[in-house]
Specification:
The chain is of the alpha/beta class and 396 residues long. It folds into three domains: 60 residues, Nucleic acid-binding proteins (OB fold (Dihydrolipoamide Acetyltransferase, E2P), Beta Barrel), CATH 2.40.50.140; 191 residues, Vaccinia Virus protein VP39 (Rossmann fold); 94 residues, no CATH class. Strand 4 and strand 5 form a beta hairpin. Helix 7 packs across helix 8.
């Protein structure tokens, strides 16, 4: 059934959100706030329906095209950068407002030189035999079909320059040589390409080589990162985030940092505190955090390989401690916000790539802290995601 729908807003995730004549919520991928569209219902759930965009009857003034995204995940490919930024900021403000936090605290940090295309310093391409030829690219959701990518609009120019050669090499490994080797390569199912200004372009199939190290530079500091380890995929915006965190720490007058989910130590070391304690579950990341601290002369820094939620009894937190948390998309383990609310550190910085888990944790932290500022960064332009930095101060 095809219905005419007014799109009230762009929901988090990128779908246009409207209502059917019977009042049910409908999600329409490819439609944007303020548009009137025709859409065909393709899935009905108890509380909402999903529909396929058929025609844009009245386009948004921010719409730039009607074709599908050039690669999966580019949900804002047909929207101006200003329209995308407005949609994401509106989503963040709504998350905060629903949780009874002040949405007017939100502001965007948009560093000079940050583009909306060709920014990713890392890309993971899947490969599979499709229609008698090997496809190498991004997987289309929700199925398993792979969209072949010969030139990636999100990847760094340096990666795109090497991509034809990398694709030829992968196909050669899949089609030439001993059958056992070909099968082994096929089972690995993906190829990762990574770039840094210092290390250039590196690539591998399957798991990252244990001895491969990437060198990154943030806030003028050199960080060694294992090839398979985490580092922000947008170097320009990642630098801006680290600078904002370091500047906020400097304004607070504290002298020590507890860095939870610390990775290779980027945020904690960038603050240059007189004392730094980092906790991270990944043993390899902690080894590199220690190496980075030693190379930067940070003799005051200590890092521990342990799950954050299991380390709390060992942690010392005082009024002059600033706690930095930068958890994965799922947010902090349930006992961590409760611990932080009880320990009443002087300040707390929460860096998040998911507003839903962010506000979930903020509700617990609000027992002891008040929000000073909320800054968001378009770390992943053209896609649904963005990064948020919330600064909190302990209540008097």
């Amino acid at each position: 059934m095809v219905s005419s729908i007014y799109i009230a807003k762009s929901a988090y995730g990128g779908d246009g959100l409207g209502r059917l004549g019977d009042g049910r919520v409908v999600f329409v991928p490819g439609a944007f706030a303020g548009e009137s569209v025709k859409a065909e219902i393709v899935e009905e759930r108890r509380n909402y329906v999903r529909a396929r965009l058929v025609e844009v009857e009245e386009p948004s003034p921010e719409r730039t095209g009607t074709c599908g995204p050039p690669v999966p995940g580019m949900v804002y490919a047909n929207l101006t950068p200003a329209g995308e930024a407005a949609a994401k900021e509106s989503q963040l403000r709504e998350f905060l407002e629903r949780a009874r936090f002040d949405p007017d605290l939100v502001r965007r940090v948009a560093p000079e030189g940050a583009g909306v295309l060709n920014y990713r310093n890392k890309a993971v391409y899947h490969f599979a035999l499709q229609g008698g030829r090997w496809a190498i690219g991004y997987r289309k959701e929700p199925g398993h079909e792979i969209q072949d990518v010969e030139s990636d609009p999100l990847a760094r120019p340096e990666i795109n320059a090497r991509l034809p050669e990398i694709r030829r090499s992968v196909v050669a490994l899949l089609t030439q040589g001993a059958a056992s080797v070909r099968r082994s390569v096929e089972r690995k199912a993906d190829v990762t390409v990574r770039w840094s200004k210092t290390s250039g372009v590196q690539w591998w199939i399957g798991e990252a080589p244990q001895n491969l190290v990437m060198k990154e530079v943030t806030c003028g500091r050199v960080f060694e990162v294992p090839a398979g380890g985490f580092y922000q995929v947008n170097p320009v915006v990642g630098e801006a985030l680290a600078r904002e965190v370091a500047a906020e720490f400097a304004r607070g007058g504290a002298d020590e940092v507890l860095d939870l989910y610390c990775g290779v130590g980027v945020l904690g070391l960038s603050c240059a505190p007189s004392r730094l304690t980092g906790v991270e579950s990944g043993r390899q990341a902690v080894e590199f955090a220690k190496r980075n601290a030693a190379a930067q002369g940070a003799a005051h820094a200590r890092f521990f390989a342990e799950q954050v939620g299991r380390s709390l009894r060992k942690l010392r937190v005082g009024g002059r401690t600033t706690v930095i948390v930068d958890p994965p998309r799922g947010g902090m383990e349930p006992n961590v916000p409760r611990f932080l609310a009880g320990c009443r550190a002087g300040r707390l910085f929460y860096v998040s790539c998911d507003p839903a888990t962010l506000v979930r944790d903020l509700k617990v932290l609000a027992q002891s802290y008040e929000i000073e500022s909320v800054r968001w960064f378009d770390m992943f332009p053209r896609t649904a995601r963005f990064e948020t930095f919330v600064s909190l101060r302990v209540r008097a």
